[in-house]
Inverse folding.
């Protein structure tokens, strides 16, 4: 058997409770208003009775006492209803926050599971891409020079040094970058350098498994992670950790929500000249 005096804790239940309380408050205010009107009329009647020989002052006074008691009872009841409304509103705020937390926890955990499940397909796709890129490289000799390049614009750490032509390795790397840029242009950082001009860059994390990874660090970059570990390190483990934090309620929900980026523009600038870009 349900306890009729047990506080409700669901959003829908509390909302129904508030509707009932507001209705009772309206009814009680109407009854109190009617009582106060009757009380004023009784007081006026007593004033008239005092100057009338046949006025029943005692009877009217008894009516005034009864109406005054009823008015006081209505006022007390309205005070209790107002307090219950305040209490229910506070519980409703907590219940909505709790439901929001539960929904966000569920969403984060489902997202983490879904990301982990993509590991086999991603691994297969990466292996296919690697095989195809290597098949292109296999058609080239080690000393086949590709396109002319200004050696001063080549990153200094490359093994090609100051060679005048792009190497097979550079060609394969450029092909991978081009293929990825064609499908995922929003992932590339397009920068402008006053000396060298534009660059489109996709950068690895130095240490993706630590709590706060970075793109630049003094330590030697970690070897490439396998697909499942990469997904866990960068995404799913972090989503589950965030879900656990939200579930504990140790931080505000808004501080734990994942930024949702929508409508990002394609980063490649469509400019007529370098002067237009900088000026």
């Amino acid at each position: 058997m349900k306890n009729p005096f047990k506080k409700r804790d669901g959003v829908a239940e509390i909302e129904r409770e508030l509707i009932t309380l507001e209705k009772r408050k309206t009814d009680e205010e109407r009854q109190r208003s009617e009582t106060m009107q009757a009380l004023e009329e009784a007081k006026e009647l007593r004033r008239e009775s005092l100057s009338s020989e046949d006025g029943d002052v005692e009877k009217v006074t008894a009516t005034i006492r009864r109406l005054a008691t009823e008015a006081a009872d209505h006022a007390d009841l309205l005070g209790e209803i107002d307090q219950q409304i305040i209490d229910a509103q506070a519980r409703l705020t907590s219940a909505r926050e709790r439901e929001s937390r539960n929904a966000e926890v569920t969403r984060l955990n489902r997202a983490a599971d879904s990301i982990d499940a993509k590991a086999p397909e991603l691994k297969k796709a990466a292996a296919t891409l690697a095989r195809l890129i290597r098949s292109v490289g296999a058609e080239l000799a080690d000393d086949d020079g590709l396109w002319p390049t200004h050696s001063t614009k080549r990153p200094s750490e490359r093994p090609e040094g100051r060679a005048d032509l792009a190497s097979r390795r550079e060609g394969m790397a450029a092909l991978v970058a081009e293929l990825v840029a064609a499908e995922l242009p929003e992932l590339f950082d397009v920068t402008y350098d006053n000396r060298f001009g534009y660059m489109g860059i996709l950068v690895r994390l130095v240490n993706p498994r630590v709590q706060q990874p970075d793109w630049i660090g003094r330590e030697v970059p970690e070897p490439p992670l396998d697909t499942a570990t990469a997904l866990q390190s960068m995404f799913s483990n972090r989503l589950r950790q965030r879900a656990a934090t939200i579930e504990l309620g140790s931080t505000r929900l808004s501080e734990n929500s994942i930024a949702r980026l929508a409508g990002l523009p394609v980063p490649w600038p469509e400019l007529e000249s370098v002067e237009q870009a900088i000026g």
